[in-house]
């Protein structure tokens, strides 16, 4: 049977996009992908890619040999920082089986030769790594490939209504790619920010964040209200309890609630975190005015 491949690049729904999104076709688009050693290539296909609010969004859908169907989505910052990657295999009975890397740092996913030329609307890069099924880590997909896409489309920016932390210095880097909100008690809130580099920052507040006055809140490792925690993740810890894989550090510093504003018709709180992070008594990191934001719709 003749093997065929259809690969479509479209917009990932990480950020809201206008219905009249800019999508350009170009016959010189070049995409090469290996999935578990099977090679997929097509240099002439209908395609679309998108830049929105500083995010570069790609979606690859393929129908290949032996009816192997997969949908792979990737999202980058303009500097090549990978924020999102997952592959969904669609089986013959329509079941969707998801795969993603445990984390998005360079030890898990290789991104090389990344080029984004905003003026020429070009994005290209090489990639590779292993993806795991979140429910059964014995199910693995090994991927690698090269993408070159000219004439990248761009949409009018629409605010992304999710909490966010971005901090990048020579000493410490934390770029959040997902967040979880918890409500430990009826009057307290916590926000778990997970980074691309196997670390987590948790902001704990002892009351509704929207009732907090605009001021500084000092904390240390003994604080039980309005404090920040830092932890790193390790795959080497032998346990089936994922939370036990997180190693917690001691912290001290202050949270500053800077402002409460309305953007895109929604309430937004912006603040900064200044803190020192200790491994026992050894100072590991010093963070100065790390920005964070929380949207009211995320409550």
Automatic annotation (TrEMBL):
PROSITE patterns: PROKAR_LIPOPROTEIN
Name assigned to this protein: Lipoprotein
High-level lineage: Bacteria, Pseudomonadati, Bacteroidota, Flavobacteriia, Flavobacteriales
């Amino acid at each position: 049977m003749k093997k065929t491949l259809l690969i479509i690049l479209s917009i990932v729904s990480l950020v809201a996009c206008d219905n009249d999104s800019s999508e350009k076709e170009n016959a010189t688009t070049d995409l090469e992908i290996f999935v578990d050693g099977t090679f997929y290539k097509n240099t002439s296909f209908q395609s679309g890619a998108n830049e929105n609010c500083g995010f570069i969004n790609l979606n690859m859908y393929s129908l290949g040999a032996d009816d192997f169907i997969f949908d792979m989505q990737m999202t980058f910052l303009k500097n090549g920082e990978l924020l999102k990657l997952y592959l969904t295999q669609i089986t013959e009975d329509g079941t969707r089986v998801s795969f993603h890397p445990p984390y998005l740092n360079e030890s898990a996913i290789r991104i090389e030769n990344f080029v984004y030329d905003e003026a020429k609307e070009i994005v290209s890069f090489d990639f590779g790594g292993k993806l795991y099924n979140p429910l059964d880590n014995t199910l693995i997909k090994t991927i690698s490939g090269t993408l070159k896409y000219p004439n990248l489309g761009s949409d009018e920016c629409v605010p992304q209504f999710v909490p966010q932390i971005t901090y990048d210095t020579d000493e410490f880097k934390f770029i959040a790619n997902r967040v979880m909100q918890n409500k430990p008690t009826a009057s307290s809130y916590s926000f778990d920010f997970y980074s691309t580099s196997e670390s987590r920052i948790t902001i704990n507040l002892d009351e509704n964040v929207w009732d907090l006055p605009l001021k500084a809140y000092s904390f240390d490792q003994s604080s039980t209200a309005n404090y920040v925690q830092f932890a790193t993740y390790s795959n080497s810890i032998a346990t089936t309890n994922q939370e036990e894989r997180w190693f917690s550090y001691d912290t001290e510093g202050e949270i500053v609630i800077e402002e409460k504003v309305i953007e895109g018709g929604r309430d937004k709180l912006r603040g900064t975190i200044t803190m020192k992070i200790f491994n026992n008594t050894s100072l590991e990191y010093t963070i100065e005015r790390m920005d964070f934001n929380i949207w009211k719709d995320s409550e």
